[in-house]
Amino acid sequence: MLLLTPEEMGNADRLAAESGIDSYGLMIKAGHAVSAAFLRLFPGASRATVFCGPGNNGGDGYVAAEALKAAGVPVAIFHLGDPEKLAGDARRARIDCAIESRPIPDYRLYPGEVVIDALFGAGLQRPLSDNLCEIIEAVTDAAVPVIAVDLPSGVGGLTGQVLGGAFRAAHTVTFMRAKPGHYLLPGRAHCGSLEVFDIGIPQRILAEAGGAHHLNTPALFKASLPALSASSHKFRRGHLGVFSGGPSATGAARLSAMAGLRAGAGLVTLAVPSNAALVAATHLTAVMMKPVSDVAALEDWLADKRLSAFVLGPGFGVGEKARTFVEALAARPLVLDADGITSFAEAPEQLFGLLAGTEPHCVLTPHEGEFARLFPDISKHDTFGKPEKASRAARRANAVVLYKGADTVIAAPDGRIAINADAPPWLATAGSGDVLAGIIGGLLAQGMPAFEAAAAGAWLHGDAANRAGEGLTAEDLPGHLPRFSAIS
Ligand SMILES: NC(=O)C1=CN([C@@H]2O[C@H](COP(=O)(O)OP(=O)(O)OC[C@H]3O[C@@H](n4cnc5c(N)ncnc54)[C@H](OP(=O)(O)O)[C@@H]3O)[C@@H](O)[C@H]2O)[C@@H](O)CC1
Ligand SMILES: Nc1ncnc2c1ncn2[C@@H]1O[C@H](COP(=O)(O)OP(=O)(O)O)[C@@H](O)[C@H]1O
Ligand SMILES: [K+]
Known about the structure:
Elements (H helix, E strand, L loop, with lengths): L5 H13 L4 H19 L5 E6 L3 H15 L4 E5 L8 H8 L5 E3 L9 E6 L11 H12 L4 E4 L21 E5 L4 H4 L3 H5 L1 E5 L5 H7 L3 E3 L23 E5 L7 H12 L4 E6 L4 H5 L6 E4 L3 H8 L4 E6 L7 H10 L4 E3 L1 H5 L5 H8 L6 E3 L3 H7 L1 H5 L5 H12 L2 E4 L5 E3 L5 E3 L12 H14 L4 H19 L7 H4 L9
The chain binds ligand NPW, adenosine-5'-diphosphate and potassium ion.
The site of adenosine-5'-diphosphate has 17 residues, from helix 18.
């Protein structure tokens, strides 16, 4: 599912106009979609209170207001700025709307009203003024239902960030394609239910207008998921190696290993320091074990080319050992998580040097803190949204970056970006990140390319959590992974 940034939507708009499509006709359809949503969702509203801004978002508002009046709904319009200065389609929409409007400072709460927020959409450029924020706060505090046109005003369509303040909509009607800001946080939490309405811009124009951002759905990775056939045997299904920490820190890697096996790797081996072998062995059944205490033992093990992917980081310990192990592993498909990432905090360039110059085959899975350790300058940039941060990091590291959180973003060095929006909050539980690393490792082991494996991993992780339900522990997750053949 392709998402368009506000800039790309602007391109689509321009290309549509160039191809002879009547832009005022698009605005009429947009406004009518908003009025239809109002009538469908709030048939008993005492009044439609329409806030109209100074651009085309306001234009959609005037069209919706006129349509609601024609349907018999009492309507009050409050405009921002000088409506005489409206230009283009928005000007025409105001002229065609026979309702007197008043300046926004005249607005007072009205019992039973429903607000249509048509202040700003794609054209939001800067934080909302204090006066506007006060009005938004009054509407929010009074729990007045809000329908947002395109985006809740104040939410950045590219980043999902709130600029100053923003409406909390019950429902948002956007046009042709959702925008990244509808799915990134905190924007997602301001949208309410999201409706993507087709106002008639042709697909070929939308395809030409943009295409880097995707919502993470199976359509993005399904074709690359490993498929079982009669000729499958365990070595054909890949062999995943997962590195464990010492005797008191084997749990995290065991979670990854089990998840890798459930994700379909034919064999999974836990590589343990010798002093942890006994502890680990008492907890393993289908997962195998191999003592690997130092880099010499690792290099011996790596001579087995059937080992097709690795996970390093969960519970491994931070320090020199992790760095030398990564040096030995850097040319092979690898998920680098947790301590594996933190070990390079003092010398991120060393890691990027190891990963440079090849087809990207490493997946980095930082949470916010780990991301800041590896990419401190990128992380500090307040105006970058999460996709831009992940994307810059991916290019710098020549690795797929899966930037975790409630709105996990997956970015490839070639510019592809996926936003994962389905994970439930009960995934925030100890060890769930270890399971995610293992799922991705299991998919890499079966030959899935790094971006698709990371995107599939994040989606499967969220899907398993939704199946397991609230109250899950990380151990529950692997058992709830869906059958790949059942994913649609
Ligand atoms: N794409 C399509 O095909 C279609 C798009 N359609 C609709 O068009 C919308 C995009 O319209 P748009 O480009 O005119 O931008 P919009 O959101 O109205 O805002 C721009 C105005 O706001 C102002 N402004 C900005 N920030 C501000 C602030 N913080 N505080 C105060 N002012 C601020 C800014 O002023 P300036 O920065 O120039 O001073 C400018 O005047 C889109 O969201 C959708 O609803 C539909 O009609 C159907 C077809
Ligand atoms: N509020 C949330 N909603 C959805 N997913 C979340 C939320 N908080 C965390 N997650 C997910 O849970 C996992 C936690 O991973 P991580 O932070 O590494 O924890 P741990 O180290 O305990 O395994 C990540 O996949 C993250 O995306
Ligand atoms: K809006």
